[in-house]
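Translate structure to sequence.
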């Protein structure tokens, strides 16, 4: 059986041509699946019956399982999505989070089971790496959340104008650029007018700084870009974001500027986790201004979200304010991320899921409780 949810429009058209059908069937099918939210071939009435019978025999729409759905007092929702490993029968899970705000609804999507990049302050990174998510598991998170939010809202049909999810951020578990092909195909479905039709400005990919893939992304699927900077010099960044040893800050800044030539927005957002006494002093703020000065950027300061045995503390509100004001006085737009969904552990960097480490390196750490 071919899982049709693994294909973007081009791949789906190729599939139809491959079974002797017209390529426009891809557009028809995508409208049913992503806009109407139906996976039932019987309902896809503009597709010839014989073709539907053929599809029933050789194709499928396999979504990942929803293991749990949690709703916070502040309206934030979290889904625990099953991500089993069919090769060895082990079971893991990832998390998807919906954050409603006045003027938008943002869905935070995971791209990998675990993460191999070992950022020291990140609970996903501490759990090790299991595997990449497939396209259907990535786009399936949007499908599932969209369906569930519309049902909760009393809608029968998913008219594209009724967008509850207006923005997507690839900021859940995993490093999206380390699962490049699957993430790009899934984002193409998000942007596709026959599917979710989101604007490139409303889809944001966050990366810890994989320079070669940033260069590819600007050609293949330029969306808004956030970069996890977190430190204002190589010595400290080498320690807390170890991929920096491979792609140091200067190279990363140059890659940001190359990206901006093709980007849908004219700035990069630098994310900066506020770690008490580690990267949050006045001197760090001034150093930060120096290293980013060649790049058109905004800052998003993220108060560190603690998790058991992390070894880090959150910067005090006063330190965060002083740090923020230095950047603001230098003329930058700075946001300080509010923690949402605390009662369901939906905050950034707390997305723990359940990862069975394939690299066996997380034994170095004391295991972290899931969720
Ligand atoms: N792998 C990608 C995207 C996922 S994480 C990346 O690193 O950019 C989304 C953001 O949350 C990143 O900026 C990440 O560094 C940050 N983050 C990770 N753990 C955190 C924690 N415990 N507290 C606050 N932010 C955290
Ligand atoms: Fe991976 Fe991002 Fe966590 Fe680093 S911060 S370990 S890149 S998920």
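Result:
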């Amino acid at each position: 059986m071919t899982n049709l949810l693994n294909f973007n429009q081009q791949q789906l058209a190729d599939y139809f041509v491959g079974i002797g059908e017209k390529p426009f069937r891809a557009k028809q099918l995508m409208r049913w699946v992503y806009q109407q939210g139906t996976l039932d071939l019987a309902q896809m009435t503009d597709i010839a019956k014989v073709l539907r019978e053929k599809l029933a025999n050789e194709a499928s729409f396999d979504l990942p399982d929803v293991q749990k759905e949690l709703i916070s007092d502040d309206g934030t929702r979290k889904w625990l999505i099953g991500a089993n490993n069919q090769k060895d029968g082990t079971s893991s899970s990832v998390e998807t989070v919906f954050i409603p705000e006045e003027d938008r609804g943002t869905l935070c999507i995971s791209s990998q089971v675990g993460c191999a990049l070992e950022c020291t302050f990140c609970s996903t990174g501490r759990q090790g790496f299991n595997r990449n998510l497939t396209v259907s598991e990535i786009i399936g998170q949007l499908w599932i959340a969209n369906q569930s939010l519309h049902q909760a809202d009393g809608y029968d049909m998913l008219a594209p104008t009724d967008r509850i999810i207006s923005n997507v951020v690839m900021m859940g578990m995993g490093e999206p650029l380390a699962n490049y092909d699957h993430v790009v195909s899934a984002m193409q479905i998000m942007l596709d007018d026959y599917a979710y039709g989101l604007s490139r400005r409303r889809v944001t990919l966050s990366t810890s700084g994989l320079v070669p893939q940033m260069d590819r992304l600007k050609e293949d699927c330029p969306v808004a870009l956030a970069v996890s900077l977190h430190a204002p010099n190589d010595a400290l960044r080498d320690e807390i974001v170890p991929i920096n040893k491979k792609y140091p800050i200067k190279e990363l800044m140059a890659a940001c500027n190359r990206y901006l030539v093709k980007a849908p927005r004219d700035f990069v957002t630098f994310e900066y986790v506020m770690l008490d006494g580690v990267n949050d002093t006045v001197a760090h703020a001034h150093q930060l201004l120096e290293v980013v000065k060649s790049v058109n950027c905004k800052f998003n300061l993220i108060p560190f979200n603690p998790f058991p045995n992390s070894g880090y503390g959150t910067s005090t509100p006063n330190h965060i304010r002083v740090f923020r004001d230095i950047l603001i006085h230098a003329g930058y737009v700075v946001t300080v991320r509010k923690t949402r969904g605390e009662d369901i552990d939906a905050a950034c960097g707390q997305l723990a899921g359940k990862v069975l480490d394939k690299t066996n390196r997380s034994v170095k750490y004391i295991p972290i409780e899931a969720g």
